[in-house]
Amino acid sequence: MGDISYITIILFFAYTWGLGFTITSFMKKIENSFERHLMSIGVGLAVLPLLSIILSLVKIPVDWRAILVLSVAYPVYVFFKGKLKLSTPKFSFKITKSNLYSFLVLLMFVFTLFMYLSGSFKYPYLDDDDSWNHAVGVKYVSLEKTVFNPNGGTGYLDPYPPAYDAILGILKQTSPVMIWTIKFFTSLMISLSIFFFYFMVKRLAGDYKHAGEIALFSAFGLTMLPSYLSHFTWSHAIVPGFFMVIFYCTEMIHEDKKWMYASGIAISSVFFTSYDESIKLAMFFVPYIIIKYFFDKKTAIKIFYAGVISVALSLFWFMPLLLRYSSIKAFMSHIITSNTVISGLNISGSADKIYSFADFFIASSQNMINQPIGVGIVFSLLVIAGVGYAFFKISNSMSKSEKKSLSSEKVNSILFLCILSLVWLVVSLGGLYGIPIKLIPFRWWMLLAIPLSILFSIGIFFIYSLLNSMAKKKHFAYVLIGIILVGVWFTSGTQKYTFNTANWPPGAFWTSLEEIQGHMWLETLPQDTKVFPLANRAPVIAFDMYTCAWCKDENQFRSEFMNKSPEEIYDFVNKRNYQYIIMEGQLVKKYGLNATQQKISEIISSGHYNLAHQNAGIIILSVVK
């Protein structure tokens, strides 16, 4: 991690906290300062995609300076108006339950971030295929300062939702190294979701007397759960965190109806991140509103309005695309990829399978890097206990004696959480098996982690209550719970840690280790040196060189270069001031060994180039000026 950009880290928190503070300052103040500032970061992170889209629409550059001004303008205004007062910090050694829990969640965040960073920086390249394509989109946003690109050629940007590449593109403007930027901030945004989840569950548990404990153990469960994301760099990595911010904001509507505006913005962030995850959000959101309606009709209606607001905000992205492509059918034809098969309500992904009992019960240190699977033995048993307690709580609520107390908000809160977590569990498990629709099933694991972690916590609470009532001494229950948590670490946590700190492959498109090493040689050149690859543009960009991956004429020429003479190739690259051309092993995969060798021989013997670097997997030539 020698390429750390400390200024970019500071700017990330300035953007997110500043935007979140601006939005939430018009609402009822959150009393707990730790919660207030952390959730401001969450809300601000959800605002960034919408802000980048609006700026692009009105032709204002998505420049880090503009983002910074918009982020800190209102906080600075409030400060100078005297509303935000700075005072000398008062150090106190008083330990409250709330502070202790916050500190423990902080430790979970640090552990998660350390795990992801240790793994992702164990090797000097990006992992798998998706991350290289995202590098192209990130580069486009950082240079062109817009999220719209009608010419294509930008990987998972336009017409794909822009949130992930937009956020990283803004950060890349002040961070010189692409690979560090993508790896670090992806890991950071995933790790921050531990905080968001803790506060979400705490709000879902409402005024229940053990809400803090339920939230704490839920956060611990999410931290240990192998199937809750990896440090894999793709847009889906930030989706669960947005889910948590969404349901935190909707729960806050009960305290102040103005939170429905923050909720609407948060919901739109998922629309701006992934199309299939947007459908999955609806499958979480609709039952949530229905269940909420039976507990709090007025709040449920306001939550529905938040959904309407989010749909209206999504038009900032969808309307320009629909106008460009003239029809939904034409639009869809541009977003269907080769590894996605769509037939009616059947949308398959590249890593789908039929999951067995062992896939859930046994956690393994060998896993899928894009979406790990598995739960673990002890974790699974606690989830089962939580499901049992949830059903017990629901059945109790049906009795006459319980019905009399349903007006109590404290009773309603834990009952609401039990019902909601069970429904989310059913929805997620159904999604894994393509019920009621097959919607890239393997991606449901990251969302299944949400109800699993909540039920895990409820299971711990149930066992603790049971042991506490049976044991003569309370410390016996604490010791046994401690042993159970250690069991979770050894049957789930160690597997997650081992997997996430292992060496991962660089992607299936590479033909040899030498080809990767040849691209790494590019790092010896000045950043943004103009390099024209004859096969793959993404690695050149990922290793901080410049090639216009989004230029139609260059992409067209690249696809036809085998039919061009050495003189035509030279004239083309020289006219565009390219300093190097790359002939990599991927050419053999595309055109065959004999044709590739013949073309390479023609180019080298033309006299227009000097050999800059060569190994068994790549030839890099400098262009003679």
- What's the alpha carbon Rg, rounded to whole Å? 26 Å
Q: For the residues shown, what is the average pLDDT?
A: 91
Helix-residue proportion: 55-70%
Largest beta-sheet details: 4 strands, mixed
Give the tally of structural domains: 2
Shape: globular
How would you describe what is shown here?
About 65% of the residues lie in helices and about 5% in strands. By secondary structure, the protein is mainly alpha-helical. The protein has 2 domains: about 475 residues, no CATH class; about 110 residues, no CATH class. The strands form 2 sheets. A 4-stranded mixed beta sheet has the order 4-5-7-6, sandwiched between helices. Helix 1 packs across helix 2, helix 11 packs antiparallel against helix 17 and helix 15 packs across helix 18. The two termini are about 35 Å apart. About 5% of the residues have low confidence.
